[in-house]
Design goal:
By secondary structure, the protein is of the alpha/beta class. The protein has 2 domains: about 180 residues, P-loop containing nucleotide triphosphate hydrolases (Rossmann fold, 3-Layer(aba) Sandwich); about 60 residues, no CATH class. The protein contains 9 helices and 10 strands. It has a 6-stranded mixed beta sheet with strand order 6-7-8-3-9-10, with helices on both faces. The protein has a 4-stranded antiparallel beta sheet with strand order 2-1-4-5, covered by helices on one side. Helix 7 packs across helix 9. The N and C termini lie far apart (about 50 Å).
Length: about 270
């Protein structure tokens, strides 16, 4: 029985500090409370260095919890959870494996049969617009295509909860829009829970049900806004919607001073 029924993520009082090169303890996260409901798309925005990626690393068990409580899919985070998918900013494809071999890696580790996993991978790659490129190596395809392979590698495992750390941040503007549309179509079909880290306010608004704003370091939740825009959404057309502009102004007003504070800390 889940302690938090209907939640994919429940974080209460999460704090984290580490010792820097001068042996001084630096507070990275400070008393973070955050929840994600089943099937909800939540984005996290905040200035550089505020702990957004660190937060994902706690959820995925890449870092052990120092202080606070964290439950994923109804259970405390104590080990790597195969029901949680993680899409990184860099594609991290293995250069000696083809597109389909990279895509099937997680299924292969799980011990699924070759024919079954190949069929599933071909289906997801087609959804990503990569049909016909299954036997290409990463060096033979574009950066945007590599990121789509990375996305396919996560989605083919059918995770219940997807963590995404600026997955489209390194792409050119046109490719970014196209991949956003591909992923949004997938999400609207399957409605997996998503926690999405981004620096792009427009991207956060276009994709999300809620956008959470974090402060400059130490990271705290300072705003949490529901994005009440109709679905299905088209990111490009949405940007001319007056409500989109209102949300952008609202989020930027919460983020502006924090971004300035982060720049002063970095100097």
């Amino acid at each position: 029985m889940r302690r938090d029924e209907g939640l994919s993520l429940s974080i209460r009082g999460l704090s984290y500090a580490l010792r820097d090169r001068s042996r001084t303890m630096r507070q990275i996260l400070d008393n973070v409370d955050l929840s994600v409901r089943e099937g909800e798309f939540v984005s996290v925005v905040g200035p550089s260095g505020c702990g957004k990626s660190t937060l994902l690393n706690f959820i995925s068990h890449l870092l052990p919890v120092q202080q606070g409580e964290l439950e994923v899919l109804g259970a405390p985070v104590q080990a790597f959870n195969t029901k949680v998918g993680y899409v990184f900013q860099q594609h991290a494809l293995l250069p000696w494996r083809t597109v389909i071999e990279n895509t099937e890696l997680g299924l292969e580790v799980k011990g699924e049969g070759r024919e079954e996993r190949r069929a599933r991978c071909r289906e997801v790659l087609a959804q990503m617009g990569l049909a016909g490129f299954e036997d290409h190596y990463p060096s033979e395809i574009s950066g945007g295509m590599r990121q789509r392979v990375s996305l396919a590698r996560t989605l083919v495992a059918e995770p219940e909860f997807i963590l995404m750390d600026e997955p489209f941040g390194a792409l050119d503007a046109q490719t970014k829009v196209l991949i956003q549309e591909i992923f949004l179509k997938y999400w609207e079909q399957h409605r997996r829970s998503v926690l999405f880290v981004t620096h792009d306010l427009g991207e956060a608004i276009a994709l999300s049900d809620r956008v959470v704003v974090m402060s400059a370091r130490p990271g705290r939740i300072i705003a949490d806004h529901v994005i009440d825009l109709p679905r299905p959404r088209n990111g490009e057309r949405l940007r001319s919607n007056p409500r989109f502009i209102e949300y952008h102004d609202l989020l930027w007003s919460a983020l502006r001073d924090e971004a300035a504070n982060a720049m002063q800390v970095a100097q």
